[in-house]
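This part of the workshop introduces the protein records we will be handling. A learned vocabulary of local backbone shapes supplies the integers on the structure line. Getting from the letters to the tokens is the skill we practise here. As an example, a complete record with its sequence and its structure tokens follows.
=====
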Amino acid sequence: MKITASTSELLHHLQTLARVASTRSAIQALSGVKIAAAEGSIELQATDTDLSIRMPMNGTVDKPGAVVLPARLLLEVVRQLGAGEVTLELRGEEQDVEVQSGTAQYHLRTLRLEDFPELPESGGDTQIAMPAEAFVETIARVSRSASRDETRPILTGVLVSASGKELRMVATDSYRLSVKETALDNELKESFEANVPARALEELARLLEPETETITISVKSNQIVFEIGNVALSSRLIDGQFPNYQQLLPDAFEHELTISTEEFLTVARRIALMAQKNAPLRLGFTDGELTLSAQTPDVGEAKDTLPVPFAGEPLEIGFNPEFLVAGLESTTSDDVILKLINPLRPGLIVAADGSGFLYLIMPIRLNA
């Protein structure tokens, strides 16, 4: 194999592929990037067996062939090269690849090509064309609520469902819950529901170019493939029953307050600086006023107030500051509706513009 390509384009692709290549597998080839060159085409691939990406690359193919090189090492090498072109040539006897750019020359040992798995192809039981902007915007609203705890794999995913003219995504880590329902302009020809790893959806969002209009989604029994132009990202689906999120939503609330999102978020961020070492962010409601406060022993304390349309008996409730801020950041609405029952029941943040976003957050029990 011998190819010549733009250094900047190869670097751009490797920055994505290196995030996907495995860092923990006993199979060395999974830590690599596969470069497959055929007559007139070059494709780069990376996988950790759960998540996979294949990307075409422009360039000249002098000798067809395929090779697997350590992804992160190749990335660092290409990052150090100057602008212009880079040539990669497999030296069979030496079992390495010569990387040449300008006066710089490297020889990188190859990984076992036969250990690199075949990546999933598109097509399957269901295939849907989805508006790219709507899909990625919905990911941005909910993905942060997915759990990062691998011991509870079901909660590390986002429940994605699409039918008719509606796209819905749901994520929860059991401490908070995000739901975003997005109205589509055109009716979908098919429908699907799948628990997709949040990591895969976040990587998909990074791949999207501003000019991309459509994402093609292929769903199989245990696999989903997203196609953006000539780039394909595939992921295993998460087995098991996703929690029935509807049962988690209270039927009624004692208080419903419309608050400026920007003002609420600004004050929450400001006061959260003093909510360290698992200290809660306290929300104290009195007639017409909300006081946000936080105190951490040996660090300090802070408080600030906001005018709110609250009436009735005073109420104080505590939330994880990071989770509260994340919920407010995830809404694009100018105002939010904050719904509360009592200090021991979950609070609900709803986008006031009818955009279909809601965020349930569990309270923290407050000491006097």
Summary: The two ends are 71 Å apart (CA to CA). The longest helix spans residues 7-20. The longest strand covers residues 176-183.
